[in-house]
Design brief:
The protein is of the alpha+beta class. It contains ten helices and eight strands. It is 66% helix and 13% strand. The strands form three sheets. Strands 2-5-7-8 form a four-stranded antiparallel sheet, with no helix packed on it. It has a two-stranded parallel sheet with strand order 1-6. A two-stranded antiparallel sheet has the order 3-4.
C-alpha cells in the first residue's frame, strides 16, 4: 500500500473523532462575538467609510497648499500660408507649448486654517468610527446579558416544573390508593399547568433573545454563549468624572467641532487680507514656413499677482459675525454637555451601587429560600408537611431565583451604563480608551476667540 493510500485510510479512521458529537454546539466568548459582529454589522462599516472620506478631504485641502504644475500644448494646421514681402504672416503649420508653475504665497491665513479645520474633521471622523464601535459593544453586551438572563429564567422555571410534575405524580398515586389528598392534587395540577405556561413563555423569551443577538452578530441563533463581558474593572474607575471628560468620544467630537468653529473665525478674518500668488511660465513655440518669420520660439516669464477685496458690500463682515455666533453656540453646547456628563456619571455610579446592594440582598434571599425548600421537602418526606407546604416553598424559591436573575441583569446594565458614561466601553474588549488629548489641545489653543 502506497503512502497516499495509507494516509487516506488513517484519515477515514480518525474522521469520526474530528466531527462534533451529536447535540454539541460550540460556544463563543463575548470578545470573539464582538469581533465577528464588527465585521458583520453595517454601522461600523458606514463609520469607517465616513472616516475615509474625511481623510481624503484633508489630502485634498493639503494639495491646495502645494504648488501646481500644468502643461498646455497646441498644434495648428491651416489650408495654406500667407507671405508678404518675404515674411511669413501666417504659417501653414505651427505649434506652441506652455509650462506653468503656480504657488500661493500669502492667503491671509486662509489656506493653513482650512488645513487645520480639515485635520480636526479627520480626527473627528476617526472618533466617529470609535463611537460606532462603542455603540455596537453596548448593544451587543446588552443582548448578551439578555440571553444569559433568559437562560437562567428558563432553567429555574424548568426545574420547578419538573419538580412539581414529580410531586403531582406522587399525589395522583395516593389519590388512586384512596388517600385524602384530592385537594392537594388539584392544587398541584393547577401549579403544573401554570409552570408549563411559564416555561413556554421562558422558552420564547430565550429564543427571541438569541435571535436578537444573531441579528447583531451574524451568527446562527443556536450559538451557545461562553465567557460574558468582563465588567469587573468598570466600577473601580478612579476620578470617574474627570475620566469621562477626558475619554468620552462624543465630547471629543463636540470639542473638535468647537475648535473648528473657532478656526472658522480666523478663516473669515483672512478674507479681509490680500491674496498673493506667483506664477512661473515657460513657453516654447515653432512653425514650418518657407519664408522669414518673426516668431520668438522661447519665452520665460515670472508673474507676481496680488488681489485685495477692499469692498464686498459687507458680505465678509457678515460672514465673520456669523462664524463668531456659530463658535459661541458650539462653546455653550460643549459646556452644557460637560455638565450633563458629570451628572450622568454620578447617576450611573449610584445605579451601580444600588444594583449591587440589591443583588447582595436577593442572593441572601435565594440562600434562605433554598434552605427553606430543603427543610420543607425533608419534613414532607417525614410526613410532617403537606403538598401545600412544598408548593409554597417551591414558589418562594422560584420567585427568589427569578428576582435575582433580573437583579443581576440590571446590575450588568448599570455597569454597562457606567462604562458608557465614563468612556470605558473599549476596555471591555481589551482595547484602551480613545486618546482625545490632541483634540482637547486644539480647543485650548484655538478656542480663545
Amino acid at each position: 500500500m502506497c503512502l497516499i493510500q495509507r494516509s487516506l485510510v488513517l484519515l477515514l479512521a480518525i474522521s469520526p473523532l474530528l466531527l462534533p458529537l451529536p447535540g454539541h454546539t460550540q460556544s463563543i466568548d463575548f470578545v470573539d462575538l464582538y469581533r465577528q459582529a464588527e465585521q458583520f454589522h453595517e454601522s461600523v462599516g458606514e463609520a469607517a467609510a465616513r472616516a475615509s472620506q474625511l481623510t481624503e478631504e484633508r489630502r485634498k485641502v493639503l494639495a491646495q497648499l502645494l504648488p501646481t504644475l500644468s502643461v498646455d500644448g497646441r498644434y495648428n494646421r491651416r489650408q495654406d500660408e500667407v507671405i508678404n514681402g518675404g515674411f511669413t504672416l501666417r504659417p501653414k503649420t505651427s505649434w506652441d507649448t506652455t509650462v506653468r508653475l503656480n504657488q500661493a504665497l500669502y492667503t491671509g491665513g486662509r489656506a493653513s486654517t482650512r488645513y487645520k479645520m480639515a485635520t480636526i474633521a479627520h480626527e473627528s471622523g476617526q472618533l466617529g468610527e470609535v463611537v460606532a464601535r462603542e455603540q455596537l459593544i453596548f448593544t451587543l453586551a446588552e443582548a448578551f446579558f439578555s440571553e444569559l438572563k433568559a437562560q437562567e429564567n428558563l432553567t429555574a422555571v424548568a426545574e420547578r416544573h419538573e419538580g412539581m410534575k414529580r410531586h403531582l405524580t406522587a399525589a395522583r398515586a395516593r389519590v388512586r390508593l384512596g388517600a385524602d389528598v384530592r385537594a392537594s392534587a388539584l392544587r398541584l395540577e393547577a401549579e403544573v399547568a401554570q409552570l408549563a405556561a411559564q416555561r413556554l413563555a421562558a422558552e420564547n423569551e430565550l429564543q427571541s433573545a438569541r435571535e436578537s443577538l444573531a441579528v447583531l452578530s451574524g451568527l446562527p441563533p443556536e450559538m451557545e454563549l461562553g465567557t460574558p463581558p468582563d465588567l469587573s474593572t468598570i466600577a473601580t474607575v478612579a476620578n470617574s468624572e474627570n475620566t469621562a471628560l477626558a475619554a468620552r468620544t462624543d465630547l471629543g467630537i463636540l470639542a473638535g467641532e468647537t475648535a473648528a468653529a473657532a478656526l472658522g473665525i480666523r478663516f473669515t478674518t483672512g478674507t479681509f487680507l490680500p491674496f498673493i500668488s506667483a506664477e512661473a511660465r515657460y513657453e516654447k513655440s515653432g512653425e514650418k514656413s518657407s519664408a522669414v518669420s518673426f516668431l520668438v520660439d522661447a519665452d520665460k516669464v515670472v508673474t507676481l499677482s496680488a488681489t485685495w477685496d477692499l469692498y464686498t458690500g459687507g458680505e465678509n463682515a457678515a460672514e465673520r459675525r456669523r462664524t463668531r455666533a456659530a463658535y459661541r453656540e458650539k462653546k455653550l453646547q460643549l459646556e452644557r454637555t460637560e455638565r450633563e456628563v458629570r451628572v450622568a456619571v454620578q447617576q450611573a455610579q449610584r445605579r451601580v451601587d444600588v444594583a449591587g446592594r440589591i443583588v447582595e440582598s436577593l442572593t441572601d434571599r435565594v440562600n434562605y429560600a433554598t434552605e427553606n425548600h430543603r427543610i420543607v421537602t425533608e419534613t414532607y418526606k417525614a410526613g410532617a408537611a403537606t403538598y401545600l407546604d412544598v408548593i409554597d416553598a417551591s414558589n418562594a424559591l422560584g420567585d427568589a431565583r427569578s428576582d435575582l436573575a433580573n437583579a443581576r441583569f440590571d446590575h450588568s446594565l448599570a455597569l454597562l451604563g457606567l462604562a458608557g458614561a465614563t468612556g470605558q466601553l473599549m476596555t471591555i474588549i481589551g482595547e484602551p480608551a480613545p486618546d482625545l488629548s490632541a483634540i482637547h489641545n486644539w480647543l485650548a489653543r484655538y478656542g480663545k476667540e
